[in-house]
Write a structure and sequence with these properties.
- There is one protein chain.
- This protein is mainly alpha-helical.
- 60% of the residues lie in helices and 0% in strands.
- It has 1 helix and no strands.
- It is rod-shaped, with a radius of gyration of 21 Å.
- The model has no long low-confidence stretch (mean pLDDT 82).
Length: 57
């Protein structure tokens, strides 16, 4: 194997790093929203609503 002959220029390496970071953040955001949806289904509360928002004045 001649992996030591491979070269990634700084521009491509930076772009690849940005793509990896964006993918990790996107997947984590997706699963966070998915988990909150599942949790709200079983608890009966709407996702994103806090109890202090439900005060009547």
């Amino acid at each position: 194997m001649h992996f030591f002959l491979l070269y990634i220029d700084p521009g491509s390496g930076s772009y690849l790093l940005q793509m990896i970071i964006a993918a990790v953040l996107g997947v984590s955001f997706f699963f966070k929203n998915f988990w909150l949806t599942i949790k709200s289904f079983f608890t009966g509360k709407k996702p994103g609503k806090k109890e202090e928002d439900n005060r009547s004045e």
